[in-house]
Design a protein that fits this description.
alpha/beta, Rossmann fold, 7-stranded mixed β-sheet, 7 helices, about 20% strand, globular, binds 5-O-phosphono-beta-D-ribofuranosylamine, Formyl_transf_N, phosphoribosylglycinamide formyltransferase activity
């Protein structure tokens, strides 16, 4: 089975999945491997990590496409060249068209740094602090046409501490992201 991971930046979730996949010998246990990492940004730091770990990479700059549909069509062509069983959004900061989402229905997952359905969209950590939340967290969910909505696969909870800033809370949440995302990927592939 082939996993294709989409990133836009640091790629720490992608790296957590790659490390788990390589260290725990997923390839034998699940018959799955990370086949490719695709970024919409050429300077995404995660690309170097992927290359160093022997994974095929591709860059598709969304600014070079006239429409969202045109970008998504080329993105799908790139992804499909790796015959994906699972497409994993890991800090991929582009909204996907309904056509793209439908093409990968049931095999497209995302990680969102809030306890969904609370705080869809951006700036989740600051919004949780501003709301006075005592707990925050992260959600892995199936992707449907609507942003940050879709069947929840897994969540992890962290406390919001009195002196938290968006950055300190984000860091606490991120450590949990790295725990639950590889696990959710494995579960999807076990089905
Ligand atoms: C993570 O917090 C993820 O939940 C959000 O964007 C961030 C990406 O981090 N969607 P990384 O690129 O995986 O390090």
């Amino acid at each position: 089975k082939n996993i294709v991971i989409l990133i836009s930046g640091g790629g720490s979730n992608m790296a957590a999945i790659v490390r788990t996949a390589q260290q725990e010998h997923w390839e034998q246990r699940l018959g799955a491997r990370v086949a490719a990492v695709v970024s919409n940004k050429a300077d995404a730091k995660g690309l170097a990590f992927a290359r160093e770990h022997g994974i095929a990479t591709a860059v598709l700059d969304h600014r070079q496409f006239p429409t969202r549909e045109a970008f998504d069509a080329e993105l799908a062509t790139t992804i499909d060249s790796h015959q994906p069983d699972l497409v994993v959004l890991a800090g991929f900061m582009r909204i996907l068209t309904p056509g793209f989402v439908a093409r990968y229905a049931g095999r497209l997952i995302n990680i969102h740094p809030s306890l969904l359905p609370a705080f869809t969209g951006l700036h989740t950590h600051q919004r949780a602090i501003d709301a006075g939340c005592k707990f925050a967290g992260v959600t892995v969910h199936q992707v449907t046409a609507e942003l940050d909505v879709g069947p929840i696969l897994d969540q992890a909870v962290v406390p919001v501490l009195p002196n938290d800033t968006a950055d300190t809370l984000a860091a606490r949440v991120l450590t949990q992201e790295h725990v639950i995302y590889p696990r959710a990927v494995a579960r999807m592939l076990q089905k």
